[in-house]
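Researcher: Please translate sequence to structure tokens.
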Amino acid sequence: MIGAVFAMREFDRLAAAIMILAITVIFKNTLEPVKTKSTCGSACQRDVNIMWRVILGFGAVPLKLSSKSAQGGQQQPVPVYVHGQEMPERVEDSLINQILNSSIV
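Model: Translation complete:
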């Protein structure tokens, strides 16, 4: 089983490279005229923002699939202890809430 996991790493890297290439091709028209970072206008900045969010989002798909399949299809909350006291939320949920409530999004 462990050998199969390590054997699939190269396929993961290949899939990631193909996905990033496809996203770059999709936004090619906006990125091609830009020669330097300082000449990137609002459309360019918006598209680059969308690009990194899509790439990051696709990176979370295997994690979500593996966490559900490892637990028999049902996700169980993992208790987190800080200074001996159990936190009310899972760490992932609190991090996601912080990101969604921040001014970056």
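Researcher: Any highlights?
Model: Residues 42-70 form the longest helix (29 residues).
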